[in-house]
Amino acid sequence: MSIKSVPIGVARTNLCALVNQTKKGVSIVITSHGRPAALLVPVPTFGAPWRIETPDDPKRYGDLQNPVLEPWQ
Question: Has residue 17 been placed in a domain?
């Protein structure tokens, strides 16, 4: 991942281009009067959530498809 520093005036003018760069993995530090003021970073991507294919003991978990229709115990 690379980091790029851009003055706030340039960032204001070229915001769309900077967002496209962040989509490619570039982090952008926006500076004001030569000092860092903001950080524009790519949004982290997450994989598919972890799921169990079949529960180890179906009685323990109950009906996972229609839990509302289970009888009260």
Answer: yes
Tell whether 46 is covered by a domain. Answer: no
Over its length of 73 residues, how does the chain's per-residue pLDDT go in tens digits? 799 999 999 999 999 999 999 999 999 999 999 999 999 999 888 777 666 666 566 666 666 666 665 566 6
Query: Global pTM?
Result: 0.61
CATH of the domain at 23: 3.40.1620
Which residue in this structure is represented by tokens 């009906």? Answer: 63
